[in-house]
Design a protein that fits this description.
Chains A, B: Pfam families: MBOAT (PF03062). 2 copies of one chain form a homodimer. With 400 residues, the first copy, chain A, is mostly helical. Chain A is built from 16 helices and no strands.
Amino acid sequence: MTRVINWCVVMLVLSNARLFLENLLRYGVLADPTQVIPLFLKDPYSWPAMCLLIVSNVFILVALYTERQLSKGSFSELVGFLLHCINMAVMLTFPAAVVLLVPSVTPVGGAVVLGTYTILLLKLYSYKDVNLWCREMSTQKAKKLARSLSCEQQVCYPGNLTLKDIYYFTFAPTLCYELNFPRSPNIRMSFMFRRLFEMLFFTQLLVGLTQQWMIPVIQSSMKPLEDMDLSRMTERLLRLAVPNHLLWLLFFYWFFHSSLNFTAELLRFGDRQFYKDWWNSETVTYFWQNWNIPVHKWCIRHFYKPLLRKGFSKMVSQSAVFFLSAFFHEYLVSVPLRMFRLWAFMGMMAQLPLAWFVGRFLRGNYGNAAVWLSLIIGQPIAVLMYVHDYYVLNYGQETN
Amino acid sequence: MTRVINWCVVMLVLSNARLFLENLLRYGVLADPTQVIPLFLKDPYSWPAMCLLIVSNVFILVALYTERQLSKGSFSELVGFLLHCINMAVMLTFPAAVVLLVPSVTPVGGAVVLGTYTILLLKLYSYKDVNLWCREMSTQKAKKLARSLSCEQQVCYPGNLTLKDIYYFTFAPTLCYELNFPRSPNIRMSFMFRRLFEMLFFTQLLVGLTQQWMIPVIQSSMKPLEDMDLSRMTERLLRLAVPNHLLWLLFFYWFFHSSLNFTAELLRFGDRQFYKDWWNSETVTYFWQNWNIPVHKWCIRHFYKPLLRKGFSKMVSQSAVFFLSAFFHEYLVSVPLRMFRLWAFMGMMAQLPLAWFVGRFLRGNYGNAAVWLSLIIGQPIAVLMYVHDYYVLNYGQETN
C-alpha cells in the first residue's frame, strides 16, 4: 500500500509542480499582499465594518444586563426571554441591514462582520440557556448538567454574571458557555509563538495562492459560464477544484489548528478539541459531526438535545440542525454579496439526501472516497455559481 | 493509510480528467489508427523492414547448420566458434547497415527490425552456449547444468538439433535456450483469448494516447527547446512526464503480461515468470533485476556468471552487464533515428552511480520513491532530447 502512496505522491507532486510553473509562466507573479486592503475598504474615510464590530459590544452588554436583572428577580422569566429574543433578532437583522444598505461595505468586509455577529449570536444564545439552566437547577431541575454547573471552590450562579466573565467567553474559542471553563495552568510561550507564526505564514500563503491560482481560473471561467458551454464549464470546474481544495485544507489548518489554539493558549483555555478525524469519514454525517467541533457541540447542546427533549424524533431534529446550518450558510454568503440565490442553502440541504445515499449504498472505503469527492467537487460548484452571478449582476462596475 | 490513498486517487483522477477534457477541447480528436501505417511504410512498394525480417531466417539456419556440424565433429570447436561469431557479427551489423543506408526504412520500422534482430541474437548466443555445454558435459564437465540438460524420457543432445526445435525456441517467450522447456499440458482457450483481447485493446489505447496526448506535448516542446528556455523546458518536461509514464505502464502490461502470456499459452510454454514485483523496488538494482525477467535471466546465465567464472569481481561483472545493456539501448535508438547522440547509452550508464547513491543514502520507502521519480522523470528527459535532436536534424523535411 505504501508503494501505491509513493507512486501517487510522486505523480501528484510532479503534476502540481507543472501546473505551478505553467501558471507562473502564463501570468507572472500575481500575488500582492497590498491588494487585500481594497477588499475590506472601498472608501478609506468610511469604516462601516469596523463600526459594526464596535457596536457589537452593545449586544453583549444587553445580554449581561438582562441576566443580572433575571438573577435578582427584577425581570420575570418571560420579560427576560423576550428581551433576549429581541436582542438576538436585532443582532441578526441590524448588521445584515447595514451591509445591504450601506454601499461602502465590501463583500469581504460584510462577510467578516456577519460572521462575527453570528458567532456572537450563538455564544449569547448559549449564555442565556446556561444561566436559565442555573436558575432551574436551583429549583431542583436539570441535574444532568451538574458537571459544568457544580460549585466547589469555583464560580457559582449568579457570581458568574460579571463583565470579565462574559468578555472571556466572547473571546474564548468555544460557542458553549460554562460557568467554570477548564483552564490550562500557564501559557506555553513556544507553543503560542509557533501557532502565531503559522497564523501569519498561512495568511500570506492563503492570500498569495488565491491571487495567483484561484482568481485567474475563476476569471477564465466567466466566459464559458455565460455561454453555458457545458464541456468548457466542466473543464474550468475541475481546474478550480484543485486550488479550491488546497485552499480549504490550508484554511482548515489555519483556523481550526493555528488560530483557535493560539487564542486558547493566550486565554489559558483548556478544551482544545476543535476538530476530530473528519478525514476518516466513511459517511457524510460523520464528516459534519467531526470537522467543526465548536459548532457541532453548540448544535447538540442548544438545538438538537432541546428538540429531542421537546419530543421530536431524531430524524426531525437532525434535519432541523441541517436546516439551521443551511440558513446561516445562506445568510453569510447572500447578504455580503447582496444577492439571494439560495445556492448555499440548497448546498447544505443537499447534504441530507447525500448523507442518506452514502450511508445507504456506500460504506467503508467507498464512503470515504465519496465524502472526499463531494468535498473536492461540491465546493467549487458553489463558488463558481456565486461568482458567476455576482459578476453578471455587477458587470458594469465590477469587471474590467 | 487507505484514507490518504482515497484522497490521492480522487485528486489524481480529477486532475487527469481535467487534463483530458482540456486536451480534447484544445486539439479535438487526434487519435486515428490509420496514421500508424505511414510510420512503418514510407514507400508503399518497398517493404525493407519486412524483407529484413524474412532474411533473419538465414541466421537461424546458419546457427543450426554450425551446431549440427559441431555435433558430428565435422567442424572443430574453433571453426564452429568462429562461424557463430561471424554469424552474430553480421546479425548486428547487416540490419543496422540496411536501416542506415536504405532511405525508405522509417524510424519505427527500423526499431522493430533491430529489436527483432537483437532478440534473435541473444537467443542464438544462448543456443550456441547451451549446445557447447552439452558437448562439454558429455566429456564430464559443467555438471551444474544437469537440470536443464538431463536426459530422462526427454530430448538429449544432439537430438535437439532439429529445425522444429530451433523455431520453437525462436518464437518462445524466453531468451535462454533449454533442451527441454517446461511445457503446459494444454492451451487454455479462455486465458489465451483474454490475453489476445488485451493485446488488441491496449495496442489501440497506446496508439490513441500517443497521438492524442504525447505528440501535441512533444510538438509544443520544440520551440522552448530550440530557444533553450529553461523554465518552459521544465514545464514541458513535467507535462510530458504524466502521459509518458502512463504509456510506459500500459506498454509494460501490454508486452510483459498480455503479449508474452499469449505467446506462451499458444506455444504451451510453461515458464511464465516474465516480470517480478519491480514496483516494490527499494533500490535501483532491484528494479533492473525484476522488471524484465527474460533479459535479466539471459544476462545472469550467459554474461554475468561466465564473467564471474573467468575470475572477474562482482562489481566489474555488474558494470559490464550495464555496459552491454547501455550499448543495446543506444543501438536500438540511434540506428533507427540515424543519429548518434549517446543519450540512451549515458542514460543506462547513469544507472550505476544512481544505484550506488540510492543504495547508499536512501532505503525503504525513500528508495522506492526515488526509483519511481527516476522512472517518471528520467524517461521523458531522454525522449525530449532525442525528439528535439531528430527534429533539428530533419527540420527541412520532417516538420510542417
